[in-house]
Amino acid sequence: MALPAPSPAVRVVFRLAALFTFLSVLMGAVVCATESGFDCPSWPGCYPGRITPIGDINPWIEFTHRTVAILTGPILLAAAILGQRSPAVPGWVKRAQWLALAGGAAAAVFGMLIVLRGIPTWLGVVDLAAALTAMIATGIAAVAVTVLAPARRRAGLPAWGAVGVLLAYHLSGIVVAGPASLTRCLSWPVWTLVELDGAAAPQVLRLGLAGVAALLVALTGVRALRQPSLRGWGMAALALLTAVLAAGFLIGESGLPAEDRYEGAGLAVAAVYAGLSVTLLRVAVEISIRETWRPVR
């Protein structure tokens, strides 16, 4: 049974919420990969008595992330309120949007605490889980406010399996990573053991998890290529997967040390690597949603 169509305003705001939540997570990964978070030591301004950054690019990376995150909050709130007031939005979609708002708010609070006080590892996992929950929930809501009907039963299970393994893999990175390691920054592995990350056993287990994730993402991309409405998303998934695997291999082979990540070419490579990883996760989520619910023409 097809869902009634919400108003154009609701659909636009839901899509903006999905876009800004994705950009917030993306910039958070870039901040982590470039170690830019502490280049703006105050909050919400970059320095005590000064809002905007000065000097190198790193403070601007952190400030851009804060700006996107601050804009994301009101947009998520607007989407939640508009969805709640619209009789055409199903109850489960309304709940998804409120969940996205809660996840975004939690991630914003944790982001402030990281800058001002720092947080323990377990709260870092909660922080990332909240941000990724917001990204997935608002992505689901943005697609579902289009006129949709359920797809074949279990049609989206392989794609959701890929998303689940990716989430477990990225969250485990915070636990495994050593100080200043790229491992904690929503990035794929460099396909070798990293001295900064300490013990070998957790790294080996995580490499195995990454291999499973790569296979599931590849399967998801190939399945999407066979469906005309998902062909573009499938091509994007396979291209991004190839890019992150190749970049990780090159980083591992070059032995890029942590301190070289924070300036020049090292900073650019780390930023691009983390950005590609987040985008691949978001594309996998999009394929999963669109395999589960199909547009009704």
How do you describe this structure in short?
By secondary structure, the protein is mainly alpha-helical.
Mind explaining what this structure looks like?
With 297 residues, this protein is mostly helical. 69% of the residues lie in helices and 2% in strands. The chain has a two-stranded antiparallel sheet with strand order 1-2. The two termini are 13 Å apart. 43% of the residues are buried.
Give the biggest beta sheet. 2 strands, antiparallel
The arrangement of helices and strands along the chain is: HHHHEHHHHE
- Helix content class: 55-70%
Total number of strands: 2
As a percent range, the share of strand residues is under 5%
Coarse morphology: globular
- The spatial strand order of the largest sheet comes to 1-2
Q: Please give the radius of gyration in angstroms.
A: 19 Å
Instruction: Compute the number of helices.
Output: 8
* Chain-averaged pLDDT: 86
Distance from first to last alpha carbon: 13 Å
- Given as residue ranges, the uncertain stretches (5+ residues, pLDDT < 50) are none
Oligomer type: single chain
Global structural class:
mainly alpha
Task: Note the main attributes of this structure.
297 residues, 69% helix, two-stranded antiparallel sheet
Provide the fold topology.
Blueprint: H1 8-33, H2 57-85, H3 91-116, H4 121-144, E1 148-150, H5 157-176, H6 200-225, H7 231-254, H8 264-292, E2 293-295
Antiparallel strand pairs: 1-2
Helix pairs in contact: 1-2, 1-4, 1-8, 2-3, 3-4, 4-5, 4-8, 5-6, 5-8, 6-7, 6-8, 7-8
